[in-house]
Amino acid sequence: MPFPADSALGALMATLPRAGQVQWIGLRPARDVPMLEVGQARVVAGKGLVGDRYGSGSGKRGITLIQAEHLPAIAALSGHDHVPPALLRRNVVVSGIALVALKGRRFRIGEAVFEGTQPCDPCSRMETALGAGGYNAMRGHGGLCARVVKDGVIAIGDELVALADGDA
């Protein structure tokens, strides 16, 4: 965290009283192929999602998450009525929690534990996927990358719970 936990701002940044909930899970089996929507997926520590093209050891980007609440904003900014999650090529859609607050923090989904590493900035593919302006429509709405700390299974409906320092 950029602010000491004992500071007023640090305390506010550490306060996540509600859990999020997994709404959608997708795997990217290979480059330039449609995502595969799944009800659950296995994750492996230090690697990522089994069956995902980045699941063999992508380190800081073992899994990518995006907020469900950002999908309507991305749709509006790119001129669409709605945007299906698979189009954005993120692995997990979560509702009810601000993902940006998980950068540098550990969290649990299902049996697995993750650590938020960095924003998941859009790539140039979003211009093709969403049309002209798609890249900029996703800026600030791309979600979070995380590394897998503990193996497990994640499933649609699972809670995303921020962990206290030292918890695993």
Sheet-strand content, in percent, reads: 25-35%
List the uncertain runs: none
Classify the oligomer. Answer: single chain
Question: Helix proportion of residues, in percent?
Answer: 10-25%
Mean pLDDT value: 89
Terminal CA distance: 18 Å
Largest sheet entry: 7 strands, mixed, barrel
Order of helices and strands: HEEEEHHEEEHHEEE
Radius of gyration: 16 Å
Q: What structural category arises from helix and sheet content?
A: alpha+beta
Number of strands: 10
**Spatial order of strands in the largest sheet:** 1-5-4-8-7-6-10
CATH arch. level architecture? Beta Barrel
What is the CATH class name?
Mainly Beta
* Overall number of structural domains: 1
Can you walk through the features of this model?
- This protein is an alpha+beta fold.
- The protein has one domain (18-162): M1 Pyruvate Kinase, Domain 3, CATH 2.40.33.20.
- It has helices spanning 8-13, 71-78, 85-88, 125-130, 134-138, and strands spanning 20-27, 36-38, 40-43, 63-67, 92-95, 106-109, 112-119, 144-150, 152-155, 159-162.
- A 7-stranded mixed β-barrel has the order 1-5-4-8-7-6-10.
- β6 (106-109) and β7 (112-119) form a beta hairpin.
- The radius of gyration is 16 Å and the shape is globular.
- It starts with 7 loop residues before the first helix and ends in a 6-residue tail after the last strand.
